[in-house]
Amino acid sequence: MTATTHYATCTLCEATCGVAVEVDGDRVVSVRGDEADPFSKGYICPKGTALADLHHDPDRLRRPLIRDGAGWREAGWDEALDLVARRLKEIRAAHGKHAIAVYQGNPTAHNLGLLTYAQVVLRTLGTRNMYSATSLDQLPHMLAALQMFGNQLLMPVPDVDRCDLFICLGANPLASNGSIMTAPDIKGRLKAIQARGGRVIVLDPRRTETAEKADRHLFIRPGGDAALLLGMIHVVFAEQRVKLGRLAARGVDELREAASVWTPERAAVASGVAADEIRELARALATTRRAVVYGRIGVCTQEFGGLAAWLCYAINALTGHLDEPGGLMFTTPALDPVPLARPLGLEGGFARWRSRVSGKPEFGGELPVSALAEEIETAGDGQIRALITSAGNPVLSAPGGPRLERAFERLDFMVAIDPYLNETTRLAHVILPPTSSLERSHYDAALAAFSVRNVAKYSSPVFARGPEQRHDWEIYAALGARLRLPLGKRLVERVLGRLGPEAILDFGLRIGPHRLTLKRLRAAPHGLDLGPLEPRLPGRLGTRDKTVELAPRIYLDDLPRLERAAAPQGLVMIGRRHLRSNNSWLHNSERLVKGPPRCTLLIHPEDARTRGLADGATARVASTRGAIELPVEITDAMMPGVVSVPHGWGHGKKGARLSVASTVPGASINDVIDPERIDTLSGTSALSGQPVEVS
Ligand SMILES: Nc1nc2c(c(=O)[nH]1)N[C@H]1C(S)=C(S)[C@@H](COP(=O)(O)OP(=O)(O)OC[C@H]3O[C@@H](n4cnc5c(=O)[nH]c(N)nc54)[C@H](O)[C@@H]3O)O[C@H]1N2
Ligand SMILES: Nc1nc2c(c(=O)[nH]1)N[C@H]1C(S)=C(S)[C@@H](COP(=O)(O)OP(=O)(O)OC[C@H]3O[C@@H](n4cnc5c(=O)[nH]c(N)nc54)[C@H](O)[C@@H]3O)O[C@H]1N2
Ligand code: SF4
Ligand SMILES: [Mo]
């Protein structure tokens, strides 16, 4: 037999690396970096090769499962889809449309079928009980984009290839490979900043992999970012370093006023960063022509995530680094979601309604995950009776996992669209498994919109899907047809089914700013480089008078909460990511989990000593919500007073079918994190800064 090579894109993180997949018959022989990909240039991380492990994983489901007493039976697609549609329609008829809830997880963003078909079908359910990983992640960035730039999708990205000062706040791109900053080989790109004489400065409660390579690392207290940024803004005003350049912006006076009480000394107390360091950071930012402050998940998923995400964008604007080369810039994606946002109802909105039980704010048509359990548990009009989970594992990914688990068990009906029988899907009545990443075509519709260069790449499937299998989009087309038009369902299914995401993609490319076509992309299997980011303001703004809103009211109103906040006594917990892992679902690959255990507690030597903890001993980490046990790793990479536990572990639950992951179960940090700890402004879960006791 002769091996053939296919070119594709890795879908496992946001870096969108090009891969060359060598195939012999129906087996993958090797996965290498695609040297000819103009963006990733041959780079891949260890996860890239795991694409093959996922594809060949014997635990991966290939046919629908229907719950049968205590077990499962395999079923045909028609039977499973008919059952799902019948149950959802019954529940909707009996209890109304809000009785059906939806949770969409992270792989949605890496899947063209889910970005198109699933959004259309799920939105037409008309339920207010829409949930997703957004409220465990980038919601504060999206809220700031909406408030400041007039569209929730207008999140600017650091122009990392041209900046000379990269201030990294609450991100660890050397482990995560970058987020809302699509940038393959970010390690190389950061090194290049240093090679051209620039600097990388990291502020993080842990001396991370990124911090190790940086020119400077400063410990910052979890949740201290808003105070730090206000302190820096205070200095920028006090030293008359404001430089808006050509930006038309409103709210400069309000911002000055907001920062006036935040002297560097006060910000130092709240952030743990020394006042002189705050001054130096502000001056460096203001005096370096090509500089950027990049804030990511550590900035978002904390008690003051809304404020911190706003201030990250605001300080870039104030110092002349918004929409400027080397600063924080807007992309020009070939498939541009921004003009499509309004017709698709995705332009965003905030607090247009609130959740039924505890009044948490809607954002972009979704409620925060922290409201999901109570909306299932609490009787009354609008109570959730049925749940659709799609590419998500909230039992491990959302705070209060055990409570969610109990809530899911009470549902009248649950369906999971997911390739694995895992901690969440084992609670469903039906599982509809989609094809693997190597069996479907790919275009990074979401991530290319947050890319540090404008690029476009389409890849056709490496393997044809078997007749017994369905793509995510086919599952949604079939469900949509069954749910909406019972009489014409075969017809609708055929029409939608014929179209496929390719037709949508081709249309989107043709009307997009680069006037591409699918044909053009098919002829360039390694992808097309469409050039560096370009200034896009004011044209791209969605605000009324095309000005940047520097001081939106919602943030000014939230400042007193920050001013009142007191630093917690005792230990607080943060998370961490590992290069060989991805949220909760890559632990079933032997080659990714081998080696020493990774689900460990990191603790500073002094904190370990006062608690009598030895390296390698088992620690108990407890909050008012729950406790877990895991091995101790003592390290001065931790800020004193802060401990770190990775998320996505806690496998080995009864009924899951994950033969490798169950041998390295670890414990779930989200058993300990209090789901009620949220950023009360935005509704985002405060994953970081949880007070804990360690013994
Ligand atoms: N404590 C703590 N919790 C966290 C975080 C943290 O930092 N700390 N991070 C949060 C963040 S940023 C995120 S994004 C969330 C992630 O939270 P989730 O998205 O809920 O969880 P994942 O682990 O990504 O689970 C992905 C699921 O999708 C399935 N899947 C994979 N590929 C596909 C596909 O192509 N189609 C379909 N239909 N299914 C697929 C997998 O089998 C798995 O069940 O976790 C959040 N939770
Ligand atoms: N290998 C791998 N890659 C991934 C993922 C994965 O699980 N594994 N997940 C993907 C997903 S879903 C996402 S959203 C991205 C996230 O990408 P990143 O934002 O880069 O995520 P992290 O690596 O968790 O980095 C967050 C950093 O914030 C720090 N931190 C915690 N609390 C605070 C705080 O209050 N203030 C500050 N300043 N820092 C704080 C943490 O110590 C951590 O180093 O990564 C993606 N890529
Ligand atoms: S960096 Fe991300 S996209 Fe690139 S190979 Fe690794 S997991 Fe895949
Ligand atoms: Mo995420």
Characterization of this structure:
There is one protein chain. With 695 residues, this protein is of the alpha/beta class. It contains 23 helices and 30 strands. 31% of the residues lie in helices and 18% in strands. The strands form nine sheets. Strands 5-4-19-18-17-6-7 form a seven-stranded mixed β-sheet, covered by helices on one side. A six-stranded mixed β-sheet has the order 26-28-27-30-25-29. Strands 11-10-9-13 form a four-stranded parallel β-sheet, with helices on both faces. Strand 15 and strand 16 form a beta hairpin. It is globular. The chain starts with a strand and ends with a strand. The mean pLDDT is 96. The site of one ligand MGD has 38 residues, from helix 5 and helix 12.
Furnish the topology, listing elements before pairings.
Elements: E1 4-9, E2 18-24, E3 27-33, H1 50-56, E4 65-68, E5 71-74, H2 77-95, E6 100-104, H3 112-123, E7 130-132, H4 139-149, E8 157-158, E9 165-169, H5 173-176, H6 186-195, E10 199-203, H7 209-213, E11 216-218, H8 225-238, E12 249-250, H9 252-259, H10 264-271, H11 275-287, E13 291-295, H12 297-300, H13 305-318, E14 328-329, H14 337-341, E15 350-354, E16 361-363, H15 372-377, E17 386-390, H16 394-397, H17 401-409, E18 413-417, E19 430-432, E20 442-443, E21 453-456, E22 458-459, H18 472-484, H19 489-511, H20 518-522, E23 528-532, E24 548-549, H21 553-564, E25 571-574, H22 590-593, E26 601-603, H23 605-610, E27 618-622, E28 627-634, E29 642-644, E30 690-694
Parallel strand pairs: 6-7, 6-17, 9-10, 9-13, 10-11, 12-24, 17-18, 18-19, 25-29, 26-28
Antiparallel strand pairs: 1-2, 2-3, 4-5, 4-19, 8-14, 15-16, 20-22, 21-23, 25-30, 27-28, 27-30
Helix pairs in contact: 2-18, 3-18, 4-13, 8-9, 8-10, 8-11, 8-13, 10-11, 18-19
The structure holds ligand MGD (2 copies), iron/sulfur cluster and molybdenum atom (MO).
